[in-house]
Amino acid sequence: ISPRLTGAEESTGRTAFGAVMRMKLPIANRPENAVALTAEFMPRIEALTRFVFGLAYLKADNENAALTQLEAARDVPQWAESQGKEVLYLWMGTAYLERARRQRTPDQSPCDAVMTRASAKSIDLSDVVRSDEPVSDFACATAAYRLAQKVNPVFARALIGLGKVWFDRVETQLSSTATV
Questions:
Q1: Which of 4, 67, 69, 161 is a plausible cystine mate for 145, CB 3.0–4.6 Å?
Q2: Angstrom distance (rounded) from CA 48 to CA 23
Q3: Residues 23/40, Cβ–Cβ less than 8 Å
Q4: 53-90, pLDDT tens digit by residue?
Q5: First-last CA distance in the chain
């Protein structure tokens, strides 16, 4: 992807999903090199495929299907956090936020997996989750953006996402009280 592409810094910058993967292979063109390359690249290829499907569903306003694909990408074995997962968490946060804004949260707990992962990484969510209330998609979005920030502390888009959560949360509260 060309670095001149604007508006997609997560594809071309330091957090590039397709960042260079360093590998040691013999110089000779041998069949075992292809096997080694395939084994090394398959986790990223599978994750990227699911990620792209997730973005397509998000673009089609189907947040639930998008989250299913993004969660499947997150769970790809041998895809390390350091290989661009902050970008995945960013888009998961965006999907949860869109679902919250459109008030399309399913009846069951909306994001057990992301909340569990955030808890396992010691991410504090006490400001958005209360024990006497069900977990909201706003809390799920916050958890996803904080996971992105945990993976890459200088990932500015995660901070922008957190700001958008608070803005949309207040806007939603104001619009619901105005219609009462």
A1: 161
A2: 19
A3: yes
A4: 999 999 999 998 999 999 999 999 888 888 888 999 99
A5: 50
CA dist 7 → 4, 20, 85, 131 (Å): 10, 20, 18, 39
Residue type, 108: Q
The residue whose two tokens read 């299907």 is 65
Residue carrying structure tokens 């953006």? 145
| Nearby residues of 124 by Cβ (< 8 Å), 6 or more positions away | none
Whether the full predicted model's pTM is greater than 0.90, yes or no, is no
- Among residues 164, 10, 159, which one has the least CA distance to residue 97? 164
> CB count, 10 Å around CB of 177?
8
Tens digit of pLDDT for each residue in 104-158? 766 555 677 777 777 778 887 777 776 656 678 888 899 999 999 998 888 889 9
Residues 6+ apart with CB under 8 A from 78: 43
Dihedrals phi, psi of 74, to nearest 5 degrees: -60, -35
Other C-beta atoms lying within 10 Å of the C-beta of residue 117: 18
The pLDDT score that the predictor gives to residue 69 is 94
Give backbone dihedrals phi and psi of 8, rounded to 5 degrees, phi first: -140, 50
